[in-house]
Amino acid sequence: MARLLADRYGLTAYNYDYHDARGHDDRRIARRIKLGHSPDTPDLDATWVNTTPQDMAAETLAGFPVRFEWALDDLCALVSGRPIIAEGWGLRPELVAPISDSPRQMVVMVPTQEFRDRQLRELTRAATVRHGVSDPARAQRNRLERDRLVADDAVRSARRLGIRVIEVDGTRDAASVADDVADHFRPYLPSPEDRKP
Predict the structure, then answer these.
(1) Are strands 107-111 and 84-87 parallel, antiparallel or unpaired?
(2) What is the pTM of this model?
(3) N or C: which end of the chain has fewer CB atoms below 10 A?
(4) Residue 2 to residue 5: CA distance in whole angstroms
(5) Sign of the CA dihedral with 136 first, then 53, 64, and 79 last
(6) What residue spans of the chain are helical by DSSP H?
(7) What fold does the segment set 2-194 form as a domain?
(8) Quick one: DSSP state of residue 12?
(9) Structure confidence by residue, pLDDT tens digits, 73-100
(10) Which residues, other chains included, contact 80 with Cβ-Cβ below 8 Å and sequence gap of 6+?
(11) Closest CA to 122 of 89, 161, 82, 170
(12) Whole-angstrom Cα distance, residue 17 to residue 142?
């Protein structure tokens, strides 16, 4: 959605997931050292197999505020003559709402369970389990359930804060869903005459 809207309206898109996975590693390592942990990558079995989805979700949610600060640093340093649209699962309603002027400056998009199941059947990367774990099937089950719990938490938080939730069920194409998102963001999008190439 962010890329589609960026193309349509001449915006700059910020992809949280890309920067979190690639640009924040030095900060992640420094934080592990500060907390007294090894700077090495955590044991994959401990992370994905010998745990529960509930513990995984709780750890993920607890880490979002720290990672959100890193994303804010990125956004503050992003020099663009165009409006910025940011997307990614770490941009949580409870973190974005306090720094937004209006709930209309955010939308939470989540897949329905049926759409998740379809992705697992049809997208190779969605059904891929992590390499290097002793029980790939359990790691996959844990990851999928963790993701569902984290998404459910985002929906509850958004509804509590009056932020719109859009469930994506796969029955409409991306352009159609982007129309809805654009309509939601209409007050913040450039008018046609203001759009930059």
Answers:
(1) unpaired
(2) 0.87
(3) C
(4) 5
(5) positive
(6) 2-9, 16-22, 25-34, 44-48, 53-77, 93-96, 113-122, 136-161, 174-184
(7) Rossmann fold (3.40.50)
(8) E
(9) 999 999 888 899 999 999 999 999 999 9
(10) 12
(11) 170
(12) 20
